[in-house]
Amino acid sequence: MKKLIYIVAAFLGLGWNAQAQTPKGSVLIKNATVLTVTQGNQENTDVLVQDGIIKQIGKNLSAPSGVTTIDASGKYLMPGIIDAHSHVALDVVNEASSPITAEVRMKDVVNPFEVGIYRALAGGVTISHAMHGSANVVGGQNATLKHRWGAKDPADIIMQDAPRTIKFALGENPTRVHGRGNGIQPRTRMGVEAVLRNGFNEAIQYKKAWDTYTSAKSQKGNTTPPPAYSERLQTLADILDGKIIIHCHSYRADEIYMLINVARDFGIKKLVFQHTNEGFKVAPEIAEYTMGASVFADWWAYKFEVYYSTAFNAAILHRNGAITSINSDSAELIRHLYHEAAKTQRYGGLTDDEALAMITINPAKQLGIDDKVGSIEVGKQADLVIFEEHPLSSYAVPQMTFVDGVKYFDIQEDKDDQRQLVAATEMVEPIFLRADEEAHRCMQDVDAYFEAFQGAFLEEHHH
Amino acid sequence: MNHILKTIYTLLLALMPLVVLAQIDGDFVKPRSGKFLLQNATVVTITKGTLTNTSVLVENGKITQVGANLSAGDAEVIDCTGMFVYPGMIDSGTRLGMVEVSSVPETVDYAEIGNVTPNMQALTTINPNAEAIGVTRVSGVTTVLAVPTGGLFPGTAALINLNGYTPDQMYGGFKAVVMNFPSSGRRGRFDRRSDEDIKKEAEKSMKEADEIWNNAKNYLELKNSGATLHYYPEMEHLSKVLAKELPLLVQVNAASDIQNAIQWVKDKDIRVIFSGVAEGWRVAEDLAKSGIPVITGPVQDLPTRQSDRYDAAYANAGKMAKAGVKVALRTDEEENVRNLPFHAAFAAAYGLGKEEAWKAVTINPAEIMGIADHYGSVEVGKRANLIVATGDPFETRTQIMHVFIDGYRIPLSNRHIRLYQEFLERSPGLKAN
Amino acid sequence: MKKSFLKAGLLGLLVAGFFIQSANAQSDPTGKRRVTGTYAITNATLFPSPGQPGTKSTVLFKDGIILGVGSGISIPAGTQVIPGDSLFIYPGFIDGAGSMGITKPKDPEKPKDFVSSAPPDELAGITPWRTAVDQFDPASSEVDDWRKAGFTISHLIPDGGMIPGKSAILVLGDGKSTNLIRANTAMAANFRGSRGMYPATASGVMAKFRDVYQNSTLALEHESLFASNAGVTRPKVTPTQSGMAPVIQKQIPVIFEAPKELEIRRAMALQKELGFNLILTGLENYEHLIPVLKSSGIPVLVQLSLPDDKAIKAQKEDGVTDATQAQYARVKEAYEAVLKQAAKLEAAGIPFAFSTSGAKSGDALKNLRTMIENGLSEKAALAALTTNAASILGISRIAGSVEKGKLANFIVSTDSIFNEDAQIKHVVADGYIFDYEVKKKTSNGNGTTKPGEGISIAGVWEYQTESPAGSTGGELEFTQEGAGYQGSITYDDPSGSGKAKAPVKNISVNGNQITFEFDVNAGGTDITVTVSGEINGTTMDGTMSIAQFGSFPLTAKLASPSL
């Protein structure tokens, strides 16, 4: 089905100059228990999707001609799951070679062929936030992806209407890579703050130099030459102008608090913390000054800065009023975020709606796309998942996943081998004996920056 | 209301011994043994069905009675109305207690240097006070197999109960010599050896394994003949497998390796358990025919091959069980062993079924390890490893209300819970005062 | 050097003497100078350009220029006549982008104040001022090998980092001249990051490319402001910026090496964003992109190499499961798709040419025939190697066909070159004639050397290996010791900067297969590294394996033969 759409799209001028039109579908899903997330649960309810948009939610809707009907009796329908922290579908994760690499764009290295996209769809995830890694204090700009599996053009899986976001990182990773690995600042959490303040102050000067030049340029007899160009500083200036949402890898309460202070000093309001294992200690501050935290359900103790963690983190943050989401940062976890969110019920007793919000509307808010996705509401993009069993049950099994009303995963129909690219010289398919190699990529590509064999020590978990 | 509480506290304080240390505030709740009656529960025995309105009496570390209308006598009564009693769960492959923080090498004690080190004892390195133990047991996992990693024969695994102050107090009565079966597979996307090289290397490793095995055989034969042998702890321990004192826990994952391992152990008169077995579903019939029991997991894992169906790891246990393989589950984890019930749930949902999934974390591992007389079900005479829950412990919404290990009532607290208690409503809050 | 010629299998470098233009009062005591620069190949079957039928013709050329083509040519006195009655003449092949005879210049020492986050351009692989001309050795054995395969002109890409420098078009004639046709034809670029410094990955390279481009643009603006207005600070133009100026001014295109589908898209995205002229080279997987390439009009140079068929041949018919069968089918499908790619380009009407980078000269004609078997027309195949390449490189006026006034570059073969039995007897390049031994029909195809037994490996080899940590390399040295070898290897010291050296052990040479081991000390423990490979002439192709870490491809070139 989706293959056909692409063939048709190709005929309709998916050309070099024409902006590719991504496929949009129409479907009527009938008799589901609809978990809208924002507007409560509705039993035996129909959802009509036309041209990729949710058009109607109600009872006894009938399908316009040509629109497929899917009977979802006894099943649950929820919004497509959104992962606010992923590295799936990226050819490069870390440009680790400088403490600030704001000029680097993950959109440049999106790989639509990675089978991880399909596996995420099979776990009900329709949108992932493909992030730069955590090797440097200011990493590259991230890409928000829509999982339109089968697309060959990276541009077709990039959510073009999502705002810009950028990766920051505090604590052990950037201080190890630069301070200890290469003998340049930062080596300490003090140095991390200095790198941030230096960067923003330079960005202010950069912006001023360009403003001066731009106004002088048009005047007669101008003697002001153009300043040097720096996308790095321009990007930092864009952050100061509120054009980019910061997503900051962080663990300890002190470093989280530090960045809140830096952001307040520079008037930055668009700030989300990632991982945030000790976020619970500064939950009131996170709630007051930031766009919240995106956390693991229960990961801890894999490194020293997460030793003093608690699985109740999400619940504490949420109860303190911080926007809280649960993310994966893993090609494995991304496949069962519904289950990860459900852990907030064991660790903190959140309600179904609160738990589901952590993987739908809350990450949508943190990515600045909550007006488009993240709940089942008329007018929103039709990213939907049908579940057998309630999605917060440990026995839940995703059945079908839709992006823009187009079905990309169907447990009954999809073939086993989903690889889009197969090497012509492949003799024996490689076997991945532990998920680790594939799953944990927060520090991927850092080795390219370290000397050859020394890099091997980074292979272990370093999210 | 607050008033009343305050009055009571004041009274209590007044009654307390006068020797108080000013810096120590509040009581610490320790695990305690005693006689407990878990009254009026739904008891999921695993081996003898599910019994409603049933009570369980725990005495001297054991289950002494299971039945309706048991009289409490002098037992402490725990009202379990509306709740469920299950046997404690067993995770058959972990590094729990052998590491504190995985990225801090000083705290990582599960991997020793050397290729043949069967004399390395997991039980020795268990830290009874590892933070992760307290975090794990409140989830209902009461018993785990601690497995060393490393070379070809990395050490001797040990079963431990998650309560006690010394490794011996924790020991659960099962040990096994671990073998990492040589792999003939491609090790991932960066492994660009030619097929021939892979084959050669695998043959070389197998030859090496055979040589070491023969060495152990010779050692045992000479020792049995009464010879005085030079101190050789590696062979001393390896020969325990040959003498059937200890089973061999063979870690093997790729389909072709599993088949090779079946062949390799076939003519050796030893007790064998396979562990890992990630691609067991590909050779389930062969495994079933061999009669070798399997410990498999993690269930929540990626498929081993890019071309595999997305749910290959979820469905693995179910496919093997269906073919007739006796299956137990493991997380292969350290700090995340508490997720064992969720791994089991995924296996259940993707083909194993709830009943078999429960067996895979209780009676099956007990039988595989030969400790079913003491563990793995709620039966009279067995050790009192029990959990009381508000519902199905595989479900995240279920709360675990009580945990008993060897008859000790375990306090339901740990660092995660204490941090919750302290920080849910932090004081001072937002504004400093 | 002479020895490596022989090793490469070139049997006779006949007639190719020295044709010295300026008299320097010296005769030629070597006796190798050619007697005349005027030749005629008479009465051969000539295919003057792609699509034209073969006709019996004589080709007359002098000092590298074709003087006449046809049946009734009068042959002036002093012409050396080569009877071509049973022979076939084709235009000499043009390599759209190659690296034959190119040696990467040594990296400069790191300065004392080196900071890995802001390295000097030269260390970061940004050297737009460099030129392929300086890196080219026309006497290299690689040049011989490619000429033997019919190539007479190569567009040479300098070696280096992300912007290695400017390319040049050279004729593969006599090794004693610079052989330059045109210098500074394009700016080479690729997605290779620098080891241990910024930019380290493809994403960093793209960001840095934008930065270099934009600042080079601003430098030109500054220069023009300085030239027109008083009171303007002096522009401090860097060598990088002045090197990039012809690109910014659209005088020369950027030739981007982009083998994989996504790399092609990335190069095109940069082009779209910055607006430079673009040539895509080294294309390996491009099937899905054909419509996009077509509508873009960007010239493309596809790899002449094809994937090996080892995997296909290793597929078993019997005794495999359905699942394995399905896997086999997918590999086969992928393999066949690669072979058909060129035909699809032709069908789409894209006038592509070939790049020899990464290809083996001995396989060139074989690969071409495979593409033809898979749907490429002979006309398009020949065009890709001649007229299309000439057109993309802007040298159609002088090259690409056998016509009066064009360069005397052509192939003389025993049969139609598309015929499997055809052998190249002569290659004429720049008017010099190179002769090759024509083997009897029973020979192994196109006359590649058969690796002899107990092949000699003695000498210094420069090797390169690709690992997830990036590419690295060093020197390998073997010396003969009785019947065996001893050796040493240098590699990047894992404990810091510089190179470490280790003895090589367990060296075994069997036919053209070599294996050896060495130990690397990393953090106090020795890691054994195993290398195995296959030697072909002066190159080694193999893998470097490190237990627990995996295996990585390794290539080596004999740098100084025989100590």
Automatic annotation (TrEMBL), chain A:
The keyword Signal applies. Residues 312-404 form the Amidohydrolase-related domain. InterPro entries: Amidohydro-rel (IPR006680), Metal-dep_hydrolase_composite (IPR011059), Metal_Hydrolase (IPR032466), Metallo-dep_Hydrolase (IPR051781). Pfam families: Amidohydro_1. It comes from the Bacteria. Keywords: Signal. Residues 1-20 form the signal peptide. PANTHER family: ALPHA-D-RIBOSE 1-METHYLPHOSPHONATE 5-TRIPHOSPHATE DIPHOSPHATASE. This is Amidohydrolase family protein. It comes from Algoriphagus confluentis.
UniProtKB/TrEMBL annotation, chain B:
Pfam families: Amidohydro_1. InterPro entries: Amidohydro-rel, Metal-dep_hydrolase_composite, Metal_Hydrolase, Metallo-dep_Hydrolase. SUPFAM superfamilies: Composite domain of metallo-dependent hydrolases (SSF51338), Metallo-dependent hydrolases (SSF51556). Residues 1-22 form the signal peptide. Residues 85-407 form the Amidohydrolase-related domain. Gene3D superfamilies: Metal-dependent hydrolases, Urease, subunit C, domain 1. Keywords: Signal. It comes from the Bacteria. PANTHER family: ALPHA-D-RIBOSE 1-METHYLPHOSPHONATE 5-TRIPHOSPHATE DIPHOSPHATASE. This is Amidohydrolase family protein. It comes from Algoriphagus confluentis.
TrEMBL record, chain C:
It comes from the Bacteria. Residues 1-25 form the signal peptide. Pfam families: Amidohydro_1. Gene3D superfamilies: Metal-dependent hydrolases (3.20.20.140). Residues 317-431 form the Amidohydrolase-related domain. The keyword Signal applies. Keywords: Signal. InterPro entries: Amidohydro-rel, Metal-dep_hydrolase_composite, Metal_Hydrolase, Metallo-dep_Hydrolase. The keyword Transport does not apply. This is Amidohydrolase family protein. It comes from Algoriphagus confluentis.
